[in-house]
Structure formats: C-alpha cells, structure tokens
Amino acid sequence: MGIMRVNATVRNPTDLARAWEGAFLVDTGAIDCVVPRHRLEAIGLTPMDSRVYGLADGSEIRMDITFGVIEFMDGRTAKDIVMVDDESAEPLLGVTVLESLGIEIDARNEQLTKLPSTRMRGLGPAFNLFPT
Known about the structure:
It is a single chain. With about 130 residues, the protein is mainly beta. The chain has one domain: Acid Proteases (Cathepsin D, subunit A, domain 1, Beta Barrel). The protein contains two helices and nine strands; from the N terminus they run E-E-E-H-E-E-E-E-H-E-E. Strands 1, 2, 3, 4, 5, 6 and 7 form a seven-stranded mixed beta sheet that branches. A two-stranded antiparallel sheet has the order 8-9.
C-alpha cells in the first residue's frame, strides 16, 4: 500500500468551534492519532496525561496525550486520544479512530471506505443490545 493522506479536523471537545484542520497520514501501525503540540495548543488543548507507546523498532517512548474530537470523511466524528508530539511531527490518524467510525482501509484502491455498520467484535448472534 502507498502513502495515504486524508483531510481531518481536530476539535476541542469543550468548545467545538476551536478547531484545526490539516492533512493526516493514515497510519495502520499507530493506535492513536498524533498532532503537533502547537496545533493543539492553538485550539486550547493541553496534555492531560502521558502514556508509554511501543515503537516499530521495539523501543518505547513516553508521549503526552489529550483528548480531541476527530472529524473526517463527510463529517464523521469520534472523541479519541491524541498524542501530543513536537513541532515537526506529521499529523497521523491511528486505527482506533478509524475502527470506531466504521472505516476500513481499502489497500488495493488506496482509499478509506465506510462500512455499512460498525463492527462489534467478539459478540455472537445471540447478543442483543436492546432486550425486550
């Protein structure tokens, strides 16, 4: 698969009018999204915690995290963890936000596709969300 980028918006969950829009690299190796610190600070988001992430080379790195509302693909939105990275970081969309919105990667056509429904893994046909 080649490099895939999508336009996405990160919004401050406490003030949705405060937002930053940019081109995000779709990264199937990343769990969470990544946004440069100055972009997040400009919309009023500051680190709330930190988390240790494993890198592809086996090393670990501690990253500051916050929460943002991620919007892309015709206005689909999800609240997600956003890693706060340095100023030169490329914005990334991780797999958590993709899966939570029912979006999968079509590697053959190098595009994102909307699933007809969001997957609920591990739930059998007998599981009923709305029992009568």
